[in-house]
Design brief:
single chain, alpha+beta, rbstp2171, three-stranded antiparallel beta sheet
């Protein structure tokens, strides 16, 4: 049986390198923590119009996902919310590619959801 200390010490968040030739190299994205996923869910819920069953705004969503996921070599976050505007002004194509990779790593893409549902 695992102890509390073993659970808290476990390094359970995956990391992957993603090539971003437009930026001159690779970046590392890390699986979101539970708290980060809650922050993302809160952002999404606050922008959902339940009456009309649609998103009201996705402003800063791509930038927020990058901020929550891109890490330095030691696993510490590379960006903070103070970088939101600057990240949001980067190439939409690059941000879309990163969001796809972030979704896949975090099991938020349709393919991973289907695989999980099948298990």
């Amino acid at each position: 049986m695992l102890t509390k200390e073993q659970i808290l010490a476990a390094q359970d968040r995956k990391q992957v390198n993603v090539p971003v030739p437009e930026w001159g190299g690779d970046i590392t994205i890390q699986e979101m923590s539970g708290a980060q996923r809650d922050a993302l869910d809160g952002l999404m819920a606050s922008r959902y119009d339940h009456k009309n069953n649609r998103m009201m705004s996705t402003k800063d969503l791509r930038a927020k996902m990058v901020i929550l996921s891109v890490v330095n070599q030691d696993g510490t976050p590379m960006f903070t919310d103070k970088d939101m505007k600057d990240i949001g002004e980067k190439s939409g194509n690059v941000l879309d590619r990163l969001v796809i990779a972030i979704n896949k790593l975090n099991g938020l893409d349709d393919e991973t959801k289907e695989d999980t549902a099948g298990n």
